[in-house]
Write a structure and sequence with these properties.
The complex is a heterodimer of chains A (185) and B (801).
Chain A (H helix, E strand, L loop, with lengths): L1 H17 L20 E8 L6 E7 L6 E4 L1 E4 L4 E10 L6 E2 H7 L4 E7 L5 E5 L16 E6 L3 E11 L12 E12 L1
Parallel strand pairs in A: 4-11
Antiparallel strand pairs in A: 1-2, 1-5, 2-3, 5-6, 5-9, 7-10, 8-9, 10-11
Chain B lengths: L1 H15 L13 E9 L10 E4 L4 E4 L5 E7 L2 E8 L6 E7 L4 E3 L3 E3 L25 E5 H5 L6 H4 L6 E5 L5 E5 L7 E5 L2 E2 L20 E6 L3 H4 L6 E6 L8 E11 L4 E11 L7 E12 L14 E14 L2 E15 L9 H9 L17 E16 L5 E16 L12 E23 L2 E22 L5 E17 L2 E19 L6 E22 L2 E12 L3 H5 L1 E4 L4 E4 L7 E13 L3 E20 L4 E3 L2 E3 L1 E21 L4 E14 L13 E9 L2 E2 L2 E13 L9 E5 L2 E5 L9 E14 L2 E10 L23 E13 L3
Parallel strand pairs in B: 1-7, 1-8, 12-15, 30-35
Antiparallel strand pairs in B: 1-4, 2-3, 2-5, 5-6, 9-14, 10-11, 12-13, 14-15, 16-17, 16-44, 17-18, 18-19, 19-20, 20-21, 21-22, 22-23, 23-24, 24-25, 25-26, 26-27, 27-28, 28-31, 29-30, 31-32, 32-35, 33-34, 35-36, 36-37, 37-39, 38-39, 39-42, 40-41, 42-43, 43-44
The chains are: A mainly beta (185), B mainly beta (801).
């Protein structure tokens, strides 16, 4: 009795064990970041001469950033209007993150910080729809005034501040933190 | 009336003690000793068993027929003494406050009519078959921890700690080792739930266990490679044998977090035509909201858990089969204040004394959170061979599905950031040979032992972000353990051989082609143990063992930004296996007033794998992140575990539990990061016999002292591309802390059913403190005062005959 049952049991176990390997692991899914920002572009237009446009782009932000086109050469004592564009090129089609940030403007803030010695001031010119004591600036559009010739970095930080936006950079977390090179001449 | 007054006095006392908090301990330290002899010639019955019905546990008689059963709470017990070919003898005993109870020799009558074999393996902890340092939590001591996670409840034992990620994620730590260096055996099956992650808590329902046993130290021989730190056995109670249906309901409520837990089980056994068939259904529901520190709520620290399991056993003459299925389903909210996008955010958060956002209480559970489901199916069969010995075959399939959801900033996406599905199949075959009698210097000795095979294969599939690759692995192990017991001496030796094979699959981002890398390792290990009874009340146990752990896929190939850890972690494909040499010595004493045990250990690990900070930080879209690469050093873990109980009177007892640990990186002559600080847990407990309608009431006050971890790598800072980079750690270890707790418990009747009630308070002084082993210690305090009520209601529906 027991001797006939034993091998049967063991065969059953072996079958279970062997049936284990479906090899799903051999199909590798590509790496997919829900919220990658690969590209940040800053476009500045001379207010006095609207045909005069300067653009700088940082690419591959999500891996090893490419700063080769990240320099903006500006004129001294000039006022520019600035527009920032963020793209996620890992998605097909390429995703325009700026459009999504505009939709959720009430919880986002761009912070522009010129390095010491760089004669540049950035003023945020757009407003969200946060209730009082809002609205607060967003920073998708800016006005940048240059002073005397100088050079340095312009730090661009995107803060995500859900339910905590108060017009300052303090609350929330950073979704983007990178530097453009500025040359004022 | 009288009892009402007593309650108010008791509550008054309890409230008056109000300040402090801590893990509870009890005076369940009674030891029962005795000898089992055959009635006909008074020969010792080697391997005879006793089984305590109330505790569903027991012990086995040694080569001289002596047995010892520890950790008994005061109370009345019914004990069955049994041995193959003898009639079962039942005795009722009363354990009071005395530390040692000696029974008169128990004489068993031969039973010539039914030479029926008794299944003893079911009645003793699996771990008791091993001569190794172990501690366990069962009965009343386990009831005191109900409602807590597995990791938290084990902290009641010396040498055990927990690594936390906020209040809801707790991973057990044995003698400073955790994750893949310890094995959790859930109902006999090696739990495989992506345990490499320091924020991945074990997916085990604590209510499933009627006993939690921890083997401290390398226990690779029996349980497989990897167990260089120890093994945690989660063992359910034995299946019912008496016909009828029984049930048990556990209710736990806590003030902090508004936690509520309901756990229940129904079980039964059949007779007549279906004799030998038994079943059990069990389930747990747990909900908790935002946890409160003394000064603020921790946003999004809500917790959901839904578990169920079913068990079916059939035992017939010389064979038995078991089918078991369990599902563990959890959703764990992560403290939003600990979510940082960048290193700059982390520094800002560390510099704040309190989280910026301090919401009101809520049960809301939003991103960031983890949703994990663990399914286990197990089949086991055993056969008592006609020529002696027992053959046990076990197969199991586990599926662990983990989804981790981060904050989403702008996309409004609903998919997780991380998805991992791990399917594990295990198969074990163990042959335990029948005891062999042997003569040594005129005394009857006995050989016992087992040989076995363990097989495992795993397949892992990932999606979304890359943290660890897809992989397939195979592992096979062969072991043999033999024990020789003669007189007061027991010796044990074990040998094991393991083979591991791992293939990791990757996608080439450019060609979109899959490629793989393959590793294989093999290793042989051994262990040697000795136990000697110096005096009837004094036992010395020693053990030396080697163990190894092959690098796991996270050690080898993790490559990604660990956002919650604010670290970029890089695997190292050139890692070699860790090799441990573990020795320990334990002296146990069971005197009339004083009892306890002192153990020392030394665990030397060659090629200890750890994350070493790189010199250059890595820059990503969210700025600079410190980067770490897996590296290997020689590490030592040395320590002392001491538990002592002194009974001032039969009612009043003082228990002290102390865990000291000294870990060191011998290669770099530095301390290791994340090593538990020394701790001392002291309890004063008073037991009464009875208060009116309340049986066995007790009151205890506990003080837990955890020292500052002064043996941590020094925190240094330097400038790197304008960013401040910390090495060693982000912040120095937090100061020492002292917590006060108190507990009252009693048993009473609810109608005709018995009911046990425990009311406990932790951190009663509402002290604001931080713990070095909490990964969120940079951001917020630990939970404040918490009052918990635990009610256990066993229900019996005996079959009318």
């Amino acid at each position: 009795m027991t001797y006939t049952r034993k091998p049967l049991l063991f065969i059953a176990f072996l079958t279970l064990f062997a049936g284990a390997c479906k090899n799903d692991e051999e199909n590798v899914a590509p790496t997919d970041d829900n919220e990658a920002i690969t590209t940040a572009t800053l476009t500045l237009t001379n207010k006095a001469v609207p045909t005069e446009i300067v653009t700088a782009t940082i690419d591959n932000l999500n891996t090893t950033a490419d700063f080769s086109k990240a320099t903006l050469t500006l004129k001294a004592n000039t006022t520019y209007t600035g527009v920032v564009t963020l793209l996620d090129k890992t998605k097909t089609p390429v995703l325009d993150a700026t459009a999504e940030i505009r939709e959720k403007a009430n919880e986002h803030l761009f912070v522009y910080t010129p390095s010491t010695g760089l004669n540049l001031t950035a003023t945020l010119t757009d407003r969200d729809t946060n209730p009082a004591p809002g609205p607060y600036p967003i920073g998708l559009t800016t006005e940048m005034k240059t002073g005397a010739a100088s050079s340095g970095k312009l730090k661009l930080v995107l803060r995500h501040q859900p339910d905590t936006k108060n017009g300052t950079a303090t609350p929330g977390t950073s979704d983007l933190d990178t530097d453009f090179t500025i040359v004022i001449q | 009336m009288g009892s009402l007054n007593r309650i108010s006095i008791l509550l008054g006392l309890w409230v008056a003690t109000g300040s402090g908090c801590l893990a509870q301990s009890s005076t369940c330290t009674g030891v029962l000793k005795g000898q089992i002899l055959g009635q006909e010639n008074r020969e010792p019955l080697v391997g005879a068993t006793l089984y305590v019905r109330e505790l569903k546990t027991g012990a086995v008689a040694d080569s001289a027929g002596y047995f010892q059963l520890g950790q008994l709470c005061p109370g009345n017990y019914t004990i069955d003494f049994q041995f193959v070919g003898y009639k079962v003898t039942t005795q009722s005993i009363v354990i009071r406050q005395e530390p040692l109870v000696r029974l008169n020799p128990v004489l068993l009558m031969p039973d010539n009519q039914t030479l029926q074999e008794v299944v003893v393996t079911e009645h003793r902890s699996e771990a008791q078959q091993l001569l190794q340092t172990q501690v366990s939590l069962s009965g009343a001591a386990l009831d005191q921890t109900r409602g807590q996670s597995l990791g938290e409840s084990l902290k009641a034992l010396t040498g055990l700690y927990a690594i936390q990620s906020g209040p809801s994620i707790s991973k057990p730590v044995i003698h400073g080792l955790y994750s893949n260096r310890i094995i959790i055996l859930n109902n006999g099956i090696r739990q495989e739930d992506q345990q490499w992650g320091s924020e991945h808590a074990p997916q085990v329902d604590q209510f499933l266990a009627s006993r939690l046993t921890v083997i401290k130290g390398a226990a690779s021989i029996r349980y497989g490679s990897d167990a260089i730190g120890g093994v945690i056995l989660v063992e359910p109670s034995a299946m019912p044998t008496r016909p009828g249906i029984q049930a048990e309901v556990n209710l736990v409520g806590a003030t902090n977090g508004g936690m509520g837990v309901v756990s229940g089980l129904v079980e039964g056994a059949f007779d007549k035509k279906f004799a030998g068939l038994s079943w059990r259904l069990q389930g747990t529901l747990k909900r908790s909201g935002y946890v409160k520190t003394p000064n603020y709520y921790l946003e999004n620290t809500s917790y959901h858990e839904n578990n169920f399991s079913g068990d079916l056993h059939y035992d017939h003459k010389n064979f038995g089969v078991e089918l078991f299925y369990s599902q563990f389903d959890t959703k764990v909210g992560l403290f939003t204040g600990a979510q940082v996008g960048s290193l700059a955010d982390l520094y800002t958060a560390i510099s704040r004394s309190e989280p910026l956002v301090q919401p009101n209480f809520s049960y809301a559970l939003n991103r960031p959170y983890q949703a994990v489901q663990h399914d286990l199916f197990k089949g086991r069969a055993h056969l008592h061979l006609p020529k002696g010995g027992t053959l046990t075959a076990t197969v199991a399939r586990q599926q662990n599905t983990r989804r981790e959801y981060d904050f989403v900033s702008f996309s409004g996406i609903t998919t997780p950031e991380l998805y991992l599905k791990l399917v594990t199949h295990t198969a074990d075959l163990v042959w335990e040979h029948a005891p062999i009698k042997a003569e040594a210097r005129g005394r009857a000795g006995q050989w016992s032992g087992s040989v076995g095979f363990n097989g495992i294969t795993q397949g892992n599939v990932r999606q979304y972000l890359f943290l660890i690759p897809n992989f397939r692995n195979y592992g096979a192990g062969l072991f043999a353990i033999e024990r020789y017991a003669v007189g007061r001496l027991t010796l044990e030796g074990g040998l094991r051989y393991d083979y591991r094979w791992l293939r990791a699959y990757f996608l080439d981002e450019v060609t979109k082609q899959t490629y793989f890398t393959t590793h294989n390792w093999q290793n042989a290990n051994g262990s040697l143990g000795i136990a000697y009874q110096l005096r009837p009340d004094l036992t010395l146990t020693g053990n030396v063992s080697t163990a190894w752990r092959a690098p796991n896929v996270a050690d080898l190939y993790s490559n990604g930004l660990h956002q919650s850890a604010v670290a970029y972690e890089r695997g190292n494909p050139n890692l070699r296996p860790e090799q441990a040499l573990n020795s320990n010595l334990v002296l146990a004493y069971a005197g009339k007033r004083l009892s306890g045990e002192i153990g020392v250990y030394n665990n030397r690990i060659e090629n200890y794998i750890y994350l070493k900070p790189d010199s250059v930080p890595i820059v990503r879209q969210r700025g600079a992140f410190p980067s770490y690469t897996y590296n290997q050093v020689r590490a030592t873990f040395r320590g002392v575990d001491a538990t002592l109980t002194y009974k001032f009177t039969d009612q009043l007892a003082f228990t002290t539990k102390n865990s000291l640990l000294f870990a060191y990186n011998q290669t770099d002559h530095d301390y290791l990061v994340f090593i538990p600080a020394n701790r001392s847990d002291n309890t004063l407990r008073y037991d009464w016999d009875r208060w009116g309608k309340f049986a066995k009431p007790y009151l205890s006050v506990t003080g837990l002292y955890v020292s500052r971890q002064n043996r941590a790598p020094s925190v240094t800072t330097r400038q790197e591309n304008g960013a401040v980079i910390f090495t060693g750690d982000f912040a120095p270890p937090p100061p020492a802390y002292f917590l006060l707790g108190a507990e009252v418990g009693f048993q009473t009747q609810l109608g005709k059913q018995p009911m046990s009630v425990i009311l406990s308070g932790t951190n009663l002084a509402n002290v604001a403190y931080r713990d070095y082993l909490n990964r969120f210690r940079y951001f917020a305090d630990e939970p404040g005062c918490n009052i918990m009520l635990k009610v256990k209601l066993p229900l019996a529906f005996p079959k009318r005959s």
